[in-house]
Amino acid sequence: MSWTWHKMLVATCVLIVGCAPEATTTYEEGLEAVRSRGKLVMLCVPHQGDVFLRTNLEAGPMPEVGTVDNFVGSDVDLMAGFAERLGVELEIRPTLGSDGLPSHVALIDGIEQGVGDVAAGSLSITEERLTRVDFSIPYYHNRVVVITRASSGIATLADLEGKTASAIAGSSQEGYLKDLGFELGYLHYVDFDLEQFVAVSEGTVDFCAVDEYSADAALQGFSNLKINLQLPVEDAYGVALAKGSSLLEPLNQYLEEVSASGELNQLIQLHASQVPASTDAPEPETEPDA
Prior knowledge:
- The chain is α/β, with parallel strands linked by helices.
- It has helices at 3-15, 31-37, 74-86, 104-113, 127-130, 172-179, 193-201, 212-218, 248-261, 263-272, and strands at 39-44, 54-55, 71-72, 89-94, 118-119, 134-135, 140-142, 144-149, 165-168, 187-190, 207-211, 225-230, 235-237, 240-241.
- The chain is built from ten helices and 14 strands.
- α3 runs antiparallel to α10 (263-272).
- It is globular.
């Protein structure tokens, strides 16, 4: 499958289910409200190469409102376990931008606006996000790596100066690149992780910065790309909640328990072994100029 057709398919999967409703349901916030309504509403941004949360395409296209049957990943299992601890069901809602595609910007907006109770799915705890929402304790510490073409000649952070990078709007990686001094003219925006690898592979940009787990899975489909170096950032995943949410204490207790027991690590390792490689990645006819 060519990348053009892959992108059209993903967009169709989003749009075919009418993911731009006329009105968005909002909910009363907090532990008692969740128990009263009988469901925990989780917001997310699915990425198909993600160990932590992706759409279960075997069950059909990404729904506007789904359950654990529609999504797969360690964070799906994690939040399903938390919902079970609370005695409620888990409802999963992808957050969408004005273009109808999954959006990191809409994710934090959704928590602030009461569209969901929690947001999860390889969601990095950042200083900017902490000004708007609360986060659980970190449950996974991650490396952010730089992906380049094998022939790029990039070997150090200093070599990134003057280079162009792909980025997903609202993502933690976009924030890290801006912190390193990358301005808008040097950032090429895309919608999905896979598009970042394609942009580097085809020479549209010089590099992309992604979570290590995403890189390990996707690089199997791109023979001309490699992990070149690591960004000097501390990156950790957490679950976002509304400021002052009474869900925070029981969530932290739950995360501490599954971390201490080894259950969380087992979930991550299990889903890491199940992420499909990007076998439909296009190969350039010739290696792009470095």
